[in-house]
């Protein structure tokens, strides 16, 4: 067994050393193996070629080639997430940044028959992987004193869409703050929003459907829509729903607009629901305050959510599906906390009976939140 391990080590040693030698080598791409990728579809229990990288949700990618077709060549594999690379179902390395494998050395260990490669990662991103066969020649060409290496940017349509959406939302928020600073600051008063007692505030609550408030509702719709798309993409829940699964950059913007308009429609339905039930339960004095606090707490919750998600992914490189699944539970918990706070605010505003108030909140908050909770924890699509 020890002799076998030593034999494998000395055969693969040129592969590892080549990663240092190839820097000064002249290389030519012989074959881009990404065109040969295929994946296993669990639902249809069969292998299919990877045509659309944006719609890929698996954990493994596969490709095959015959090593006898390539002499004096190397396999160049690039990755960013720590991918595991398997050859004929045997792990040969972990891909972090660039790895090079000399094909002639691999032939001595694994033979010259057809090779089957597998790339595995729990949250596999096909846009972060590159597989190529390149030829190299260690010629004594003079190197420039200050060589300039240009790396082509990896094109990821979903995250390019996310960056564009963040810029648009930031511009929208800046415009609101520039023209309506007082109204916007009232909406983002965290202490008053989550206080258990309703306070008398000189707000624009008397006109919930005024022009300024409508712009704030529109901003909230775009913000919540982006948060939902990010959560679905990172956790993999509800990926079958077309509105959460954009196939390209422009398709992502279009579906974000569609989802935002659906949320805006829900805000109008919510207003009608609160207005009618408050009249039915004779709580008309609380109607405007209820809707205002609902919008205000929603703004704060989704604003914190987008900041944490952007920092987690783009700032700290957190790709774990479990992390974002726990984050979904935290967001749902805050939405549930919103229902409890609204109950105490209503209880402190007048001497209503608890059962009377709870019946009102069941129609306006508890039942809608139960539907959201059910959709968030179950994949119905």
TrEMBL record:
InterPro entries: DUF4271. This is DUF4271 domain-containing protein. It holds the Pfam family DUF4271. Keywords: Membrane, Signal, Transmembrane, Transmembrane helix. The chain crosses the membrane at residues 158-180, 214-233, 253-273, 294-317, 323-345, 357-377. Residues 1-25 form the signal peptide. It comes from the Bacteria.
